[in-house]
Amino acid sequence: MNRTAEKVLGIIGLVFTVFGIIASVFGAVIFKMFSSNPDLRTEMEMDLYSDPAMTPADIDMFFTIFNALGGFLWLGVVFLVISLVLTIIGLVNIWNNKNPKLAGIMFIIGGLTGGILSLTSILLYIAGILCLTKKPKTMVPDEHIITDTPPEDGGMRPL
Q1: pLDDT single digits (tens) 58-98
Q2: Cβ-contact 13, 123 below 8 angstroms
Q3: Distance of CA 76 to the CA centre of its chain
Q4: Contact 13/19 with Cβ under 8 angstroms?
Q5: Among residues 89, 98, 80, which one has the least CA distance to residue 10?
Q6: How far, in whole angstroms, is CA 6 from its chain's centroid?
Q7: Three-state SS across 1-59?
Q8: Which carries the bigger pLDDT value, residue 153 or residue 14?
Q9: Distance between CA 80 and CA 122 in Å, rounded?
């Protein structure tokens, strides 16, 4: 059976997942650089202290949230790597039509770990659903083929 649509959607999802990993690692490194470099931190603190509406408690809360966002980006990298591995497993299983059911399950779980409603996950959901629902073509037995000639046994022929 031809599984071109599933392969294409899986490959596009794989490429988008790799781009997501690269962007998340880049963002996490930037957050880490800002939070660990004391010169940048003091410069940001001076900018925040110059705002009369900001209190020292607000500034501490700002840096706490800033550090937490860096940690969440690393958590996102971990989930995207899991999604990447599951997508690769799905592509390997669908490539020669070895195990389309397993590939569909891997695509759907990869979409869930890659982000619930991201473009990547939607593509992987579609590929997974196609893998699970597409049935192989079955051959029609010869006795059910309709012809213009009457049957040899003298019975009635279908309309």
Answers
A1: 888 888 888 888 888 899 999 999 999 999 999 999 988 88
A2: yes
A3: 12
A4: no
A5: 89
A6: 13
A7: CCCHHHHHHHHHHHHHHHHHHHHHHHHHHHHHHHHHCHHHHHHHHHHHHCCCCCCHHHH
A8: 14
A9: 14
